[in-house]
Amino acid sequence: MGTGPTDFFEQAARALGYRRIAGLDEAGRGPLAGPVVAAIVILPRRWSPVLLDDSKLLTEQQRQTLYDTITTRAIAW
Fold first, then answer.
1. Which alpha helices (DSSP H) does the chain contain, by range?
2. pLDDT, position 27
3. What's the average model confidence in pLDDT over 7-32?
């Protein structure tokens, strides 16, 4: 089991010269062949919300708070 989100891959990409790093999350039940919703977002470099985690681990209120914050502050989504 993991320890939560890290910036390991982001830092590796930045070291290679990438300036925009996208984060991805999916929501679905069972195998990938079933109904799935996926979202990708590019956040400002120095912004790391405390609640940012797997959406299945968040409460509905936490997801709504993140949605509101992300859609107003994201570079792209």
1. 8-15, 60-73
2. 76
3. 85
Q: State yes or no: pLDDT of 61 exceeds 90.
A: yes
Backbone angles phi, psi at 41, to 5 degrees: -140, 145
Distance CA 53, CA 6 (A): 10
- The tokens for 73 are 């502050």
Q: For the range 36-44, what are the long-range contacts, defined as Cβ-Cβ under 8 Å and sequence gap of 24 or more? A: 39/77, 40/77, 41/70, 41/74, 41/76, 41/77, 42/74, 42/75, 42/76, 42/77, 43/70, 43/73, 43/74, 43/75, 44/73, 44/74, 44/75
